[in-house]
Write a structure and sequence with these properties.
Layout lengths: L17 H12 L3 H8 L17 H8 L3 H13 L21 H5 L5 H4 L66 H7 L3 H18 L5 H16 L1
Helix pairs in contact: 8-9
The structure holds zinc ion (ZN) (2 copies).
Length: about 230
């Protein structure tokens, strides 16, 4: 693999997933996924979130690319999960192990941690229902990084890339908070202290058990109903 790796901080969108960032790095530098693992592989550490892609030495990637990815990823994961948690060690309960993506975002090589969050069922930027099947052969996709001989993560059945880079590289579109159209997601990101306390203190156990069925709108509805109840 080459000495220098090309990366631009302008390529990073808000809430971009490690899956998406590493896919971009491989594509932009024409590094196969198996070469990427050869260079940056480490022993599997099941104490870190699966969202970080286990089996990679993230510190080594950071220092090679001179960008603090790890801090960025942790901040994002914490932002989405900590308001739901009375305690911190069950972050992964709030994220899907299946890979969910938005048709429109995938054309811009963007995959978001928003999409993996169990309560979010549509893309916050396009309001498009999230999918977890290959767009060509319909095979279910999994949030993981395969050590393949391709420069993009692909469907293991038909080799269709999950994220498409050719139309956006090297000027990847980046998504910002201003482009979020989902009012529920904005409400989640803008929750005040009292709402967070209600969520953590009262709703946490119930929400944890129903997280596959309920969406964010329902969670926000419950928080606000409880707030009204407490204020009387
Ligand atoms: Zn989208
Ligand atoms: Zn496929």
């Amino acid at each position: 693999m080459q000495e220098r790796i090309t990366w631009s901080k302008d390529w990073l969108s808000i809430y971009e997933s490690p899956f998406s960032v590493y896919d971009k790095i491989c594509y932009a530098n024409v590094i196969t996924q198996s070469e990427f693992f050869k260079n940056f592989g480490s022993s599997m550490d099941s104490s870190i979130s699966f969202l970080l892609i286990r089996g990679l030495d993230h510190r080594k990637i950071e220092s090679k690319i001179s960008y603090p990815f790890l801090t960025q990823f942790y901040t994002t994961i914490t932002n989405l999960s900590e308001d739901f948690l009375g305690y911190k060690n069950q972050t992964d309960d709030f994220f899907n192990k299946d890979l969910y993506y938005c048709n429109f975002c995938s054309l811009n090589a963007y995959h978001s941690l928003f999409f993996q969050f169990k309560f979010i069922k549509e893309c916050p930027f396009h309001l498009e229902p999230l999918k977890n099947n290959c767009r060509v052969c319909n095979q279910p996709l999994i949030y993981t990084f395969y050590k393949s001989s391709s420069i993009s993560q692909c469907c293991t059945n038909c080799n269709e890339p999950v994220l498409l880079h050719q139309h956006s590289f090297p000027n990847f579109k980046t998504y910002t908070k201003n482009e979020i159209k989902s009012l529920d997601v904005l409400d989640l990101l803008n929750m005040d202290f009292e709402q967070k306390q209600i969520l953590k203190g009262t709703l946490f156990q119930g929400i944890k058990n129903m997280s596959n069925k309920q969406d964010l709108n329902f969670v926000l509805y419950c928080i606000n109903a409880l707030r009204k109840y407490y204020s009387h």
